[in-house]
Amino acid sequence: MSAVDDAALSPSALTPAQARERFRGGVVRPTAGWAAGCAQANLLAVPRDWAFEVLLFAQRNPKPCPVLGVLDAGETAGPLLPGGDIRTDVPQYVVYEHGREVARPVDATAYWRDDLVTFLLGCSFTFEDALMAEGIRVAHIDQGVNVPMYRTSRRCEPVGRLSGPLVVSMRPVPADRGADAVRITSRYPAVHGAPVHVGDPAGLGIADLAAPDYGDAVRIAPGEIPVFWACGVTPQAAVVESRPPFAISHAPGHMLVTDARDSSYQVP
Amino acid sequence: MSAVDDAALSPSALTPAQARERFRGGVVRPTAGWAAGCAQANLLAVPRDWAFEVLLFAQRNPKPCPVLGVLDAGETAGPLLPGGDIRTDVPQYVVYEHGREVARPVDATAYWRDDLVTFLLGCSFTFEDALMAEGIRVAHIDQGVNVPMYRTSRRCEPVGRLSGPLVVSMRPVPADRGADAVRITSRYPAVHGAPVHVGDPAGLGIADLAAPDYGDAVRIAPGEIPVFWACGVTPQAAVVESRPPFAISHAPGHMLVTDARDSSYQVP
């Protein structure tokens, strides 16, 4: 379907291929709510020399870094984005050199290198449909902003040259639905699963919920508690701390929309 | 507890540390039924230069290669074997050079190299307790032999230089308990999970159940069907086909007995 044909469709009604086509065409938007029913993915591409450490870091830290797929050096498409191009199909990228952000392009082609191995990690946007289907509203979607994300005082299990803090996303949930939010998201272990922390931001070393480290603050209504899920931005925090010579990630909240169905990551 | 103190204990009553101590001391036995309630693991150690491909092979073939833990180059112990030594604590090893078996030592210390990265993969022995707890007998335990394993005509998803066939283990199950066997083992995805095939050996390219490629044949009683689970010997078949310069594995059926509880790999 061409951009003209699908122009009238709301983001949630797009197919994954249509969503990726829009982003390839230059649309820059957080992707929460896009292509309803389809899984979204975090991206981290590193030189081949760092790939084993990243994959082992993911294996040892499966809550923040659930691996959905890996594109080996030289591969730019795969089963998660058939007919796509990982260098262009994400709304916005962050380019790192020695752990420092050097660019935030909407098309990463000019920065891409043949030796980059790309990791696609599960994203908690994937279970938001399931939360909404059971009547739990998602604040950042309702409020039209990016999900708030925070670096925590909790450390990831390090691997070789890679270390860093756990990053979490936060969604306010009415206190009487807190147990439901845990139950529902527990069924999606491949996309961060159950929360890592419920309430008590200070327990994660978060001083001020209104000042997220990534994304946007959301309003928390009376009677709501902040619930924290492990976040796929965690490897970006590890890149900043560990300073590999080069890396490319997605911009937080600006995910790859994949062809995988949310339901394929659901356990009974 | 010393070897003298625990000498009277049956293998199933041993702690994992006691079991590893026996194997370190030279006992050579298939480990099915040892240290009841504790997970067992397949072993594959490869040079660092091959480690990324092995880990990605595991990620792309999670049914035969569920990663429970990885010891990086230079590490010989870890949370799965606290106080242990991966070079001595498995009952028997196989040493491969360029894909050919060159030795089958009970102590691998003399063969070990500082650049070896060790992968510990889930083993279906882990769910045998759960099968037996629901009254499904395990033939190779009853018959006192090693589990039968077969190379199949099904191919694994290849990665770089690594390719090979799926290897399966087989347990005969009474036809009226076939559904139960599926239900019970489905709850253990980290240790191969649900069967890959039920009945019909020819559909997997298995010509003769009485001639397994690894382990021992078991008797199949009237009314029983052969049920096939993905097997952690699969990476050994990939080593034989793909010929890395060097590799060390466990001898099929002779697993690492770990400190992890079976139940920790169970999903609801």
Automatic annotation (TrEMBL), chains A, B:
Molecular-function GO terms, alphabetical: lyase activity
First and last residue of the signal peptide: none
InterPro entries: D-Glu_cyclase, Putative_hydro-lyase, UPF0317
Keyword Lyase: yes
This enzyme's EC code(s): 4.2.1.-
Protein's name in the database: Putative hydro-lyase CIB50_0000923
Family: Belongs to the D-glutamate cyclase family.
Pfam annotation, one family: D-Glu_cyclase
Keywords: Lyase
Broad EC category: lyase
